[in-house]
């Protein structure tokens, strides 16, 4: 299955933030939208980084509560790994597992068009395995 197909199963809205926003603003955005990471963009939806809950927790651990007044640019992961709509879900899952990250922006050229999470690709993989198991059961039952 392609990333494009995975994106059709997600809400169209993409939550983004600017690099100059504060960590406190980013934290509120994550909480309000019930998401684990936010894509950091510049003009024309060009991806410049990603900020995850994990990045914020590391910042709090290292710098204390004062980190909340710092800029997103100070904690974001950059450069960020991205994928395209044509990439396979299995390829994205492999890259996420190897890189130990849970969110990947989807781009076309330099423009952000979506975000895929490890939950999206794992859910897809489980559905595929269940379909294969069902087909195998049907084959055995009729064979």
Automatic annotation (TrEMBL):
Coiled-coil intervals, chain numbering: none
Keywords for the protein's UniProt record, in alphabetical order: CBS domain
Keyword hit for NADP: no
Pfam families referenced in this protein's UniProt entry, alphabetically: CBS
Domain named CBS: residues: 7-67, 76-132
Protein's UniProt name: CBS domain-containing protein
Native organism: Pacificispira spongiicola
């Amino acid at each position: 299955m392609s990333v494009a197909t995975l994106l059709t199963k997600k809400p169209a809205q993409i939550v983004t933030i600017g690099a100059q926003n504060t960590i406190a603003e980013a934290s509120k955005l994550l909480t309000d939208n019930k998401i684990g990471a936010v894509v950091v963009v510049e003009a024309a939806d060009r991806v410049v980084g990603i900020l995850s809950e994990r990045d914020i927790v590391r910042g709090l651990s290292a710098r204390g509560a004062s980190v909340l007044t710092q800029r997103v640019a100070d904690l974001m992961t950059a450069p960020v790994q991205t994928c395209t709509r044509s990439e396979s879900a299995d390829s994205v899952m492999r890259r996420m597992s190897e890189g130990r990250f849970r969110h990947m922006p989807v781009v076309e050229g330099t423009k952000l068009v979506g975000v895929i999470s490890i939950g999206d690709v794992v859910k897809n993989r489980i559905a595929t395995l269940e379909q294969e198991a069902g087909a195998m059961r049907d084959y055995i039952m009729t064979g």
